[in-house]
Write a structure and sequence with these properties.
With 355 residues, this protein is mainly beta. The chain contains 2 helices and 17 strands. 34% of the residues are buried.
Length: 355
């Protein structure tokens, strides 16, 4: 058993050190216990922290669902050719297709141009989709776009490089699958392992026997918008269980190191700090087409930031917030930040209604 768990133990050890051995307390020593700021900056901080935390939590949920779909529905393509495919499908050594642009809920299928999607993609992705009651997913096929004819005498345009190409491997000794994906300002290293009801690792997903999947995910990313830039590094240790029943239940913890900058009028606010994330019994119905949002459970993010305002308003303050999202089966869920609350819209990642 030691050889099977060595890679996970190494990764988890780094993660545990990062979160200070606690999934519900800020990482690091000497964390500030309150906001120490004037009213103008404090008001802006409330809005910034609520928006950043809400977007991160909503994005994490979409990523978790996509990871589950990939592991259960289409991971046979990454297994050795001698290994039986998952769910009775035939194994295939064909490399995965490029996921449709802007569709984080889609994962490559076992055939080129085929995708498994939690939600139906938009028309701009040129996909034809059919809902599968068995997989509880949309099975989408890439439809070729009309080819444009170049002017006479000009060579045809070079094909675009693949975006977000994913490279995967299987460790037969440890029974761990690993995937690396990079592109569009983000890199993700994901490892996972199938387990039965007793917690014993399994070689593949077997319907009726596999009870849970354990994930370790490392993400590094950066983003720049009109008035907002961000750089983030995160680690996640999460488990989805309940494959022997009608619900899927997520539990786990993680840590993040983030830098965010906001420009507003003649001032710029920059946040640098740490956060700790916890998922507690976040429960989805397996039938996601009609129940896409968690029925219950909570997501907690504890943040410790140093906020620096420059320009028209010059000020430095420390920020400590415990952000709690309580899921209720709808897209509109309460997000609490201590002495005030807002509404997080899981479908758009927007936060409003703060009071």
């Amino acid at each position: 058993m030691r050889s099977r768990s060595f890679s996970f133990i190494t990764f988890a050890g780094v993660l545990i050190l990062a979160v200070g051995c606690s999934g519900d307390n800020p990482a690091g020593l000497g964390a500030p216990s309150q906001i120490n700021s004037g009213a103008p900056l404090s008001s802006a901080i409330k809005s910034d922290i609520a928006s950043a935390a809400g977007d991160a939590i909503a994005g994490d949920l979409e990523t978790l669902i996509a990871n589950q779909a990939a592991a259960v529905g289409s991971f046979a393509v990454f297994a050795p050719s001698s290994t039986p495919a998952f769910d009775g499908e035939s194994s295939d050594s064909t490399p995965p297709s490029t996921p449709p642009a802007g569709q984080p809920n889609c994962t490559p299928g076992s055939q080129p141009g085929v995708f498994l999607c939690v939600k139906q993609p938009g028309e701009g992705d040129h996909l034809k989709c059919t809902y599968s009651d068995e997989k509880k997913l949309y099975i989408c096929v890439k439809v070729d776009e009309p080819a444009s004819t170049p002017p006479p005498g000009e060579p045809p345009p070079a094909p675009a490089p693949p975006v977000n190409a994913e490279s995967c491997s299987f460790n037969a000794d440890a029974l761990i699958y690993s995937c690396t994906r990079s592109g569009e300002g983000k890199s993700v290293v994901k490892s996972y392992q199938f387990r039965d009801a007793s917690g014993k690792p399994m070689e593949k997903f077997i319907r009726g026997t596999t009870e849970s999947i354990h994930y370790l995910v490392k993400t590094d990313g950066s983003e720049a918008k009109d008035n907002h830039t961000s750089v983030s590094h995160s680690l996640r240790d999460v488990t989805v269980s309940g494959f022997l029943g009608p619900n899927r239940i997520w539990n786990g913890f993680g840590s993040s190191a983030d830098t965010n900058s906001y420009k507003e009028d003649l001032s710029t606010r920059k946040y640098t700090g740490l956060s700790v994330d916890t998922l507690k019994a976040v429960t989805f119905v397996d039938e996601r087409a009609t129940h896409p949002y968690p029925l219950s459970g909570v997501a907690i993010r504890v943040v410790d930031y140093t906020a620096v305002s420059t320009g028209k308003q010059v000020e430095t303050t420390t920020v400590h917030r415990r952000v709690v999202v309580t899921f209720n089966g709808t897209a509109d869920v309460p997000i609490s930040l201590g002495d005030y609350g807002c509404v997080l819209h899981l479908d758009t990642h927007k936060v409003d209604g703060c009071k």
